[in-house]
Design goal:
Layout lengths: L13 H11 L7 E5 L4 H12 L3 E6 L2 H9 L4 E4 L5 H8 L5 E6 L2 H11 E9 L10 H7 L2 E4 L7 H17 L6 E6 L3 H10 L6 E5 L1
Parallel strand pairs: 1-2, 1-4, 2-3, 4-5, 5-6, 7-8
């Protein structure tokens, strides 16, 4: 395979992106996609995949550096989800119509906000969550929205093969660029977990090394 080592295999988190964006949300070119938590490894990959599909990509991060990273990876607009009123800015970016598709990386914190921002008959795809959240079903009914999720371990072998082929083509074409974040040796795994929970904002995918 030209430009990509035959021994290279796309990182596991890449395989959330294509099922989430294409299969669950059934996106169409020209639609607006919000990646709620876009500066981490999965968010970055989703951003790059969405841009390759012709979507208008909006992303959020928790720091100014994270916002710059989102723009560098192809997003059209970036927002700080720690700022008061950031959801109003996102709605303004859609001319008040709401977002067609939302990729949610931390549903226990953001799902209620997503239900306010999603467009009528829009879709929210949950990719990550760290706990429970209480929502009002009327918010879903009012938008006739679809709330679904992706769990990578349920993917069929043929779906993984299709995703891998798509990602290899993206790396060869140059639009898919894995972003490596902080690195920890295996004996520092506990510290890595602590840092990712307490971090003010993600920047690529955290790596554990032997």
């Amino acid at each position: 395979m030209h430009g990509v080592s035959e021994n290279f295999f796309p990182p596991l988190y890449f395989f959330y992106c294509l099922p989430a964006v294409f299969c669950r949300a059934r996106v169409k070119a020209g639609q607006t996609l919000l990646i709620h938590g876009a500066s981490g490894g999965t968010g970055m990959a989703t951003c790059q995949v969405a841009c390759s599909m012709g979507l208008k990509v909006l992303g959020t991060a928790g720091t100014p550096d994270g916002m710059k990273l989102i723009i560098k990876n192809g997003a059209h607009r970036a927002f700080n989800h720690r700022e008061k009123g950031y959801t109003d800015k996102i709605m303004a970016a859609t001319d008040g119509k709401g977002v067609d598709v939302i990729m949610e990386m931390l549903a226990n914190s953001n799902l209620n906000k997503d239900l306010q921002m999603v467009a009528k008959r829009g879709c929210i795809v949950i990719i990550g969550s760290r706990g429970p959240i209480e929502i009002n079903p009327v918010d879903i009914m009012a938008k006739e929205a679809l709330v679904t999720a992706v769990v990578i371990f349920y993917a069929k072998p043929e779906e993984n093969k299709q995703s891998a082929a798509y990602f290899f083509s993206g790396m060869e074409a140059g639009w898919l660029r894995p972003l490596v974040g902080p690195k920890y040796t295996l004996d520092k795994a506990a510290q890595a977990h602590k840092d990712i929970i307490e971090s003010s904002g993600a920047a690529g995918k955290m790596i554990l090394t032997m």
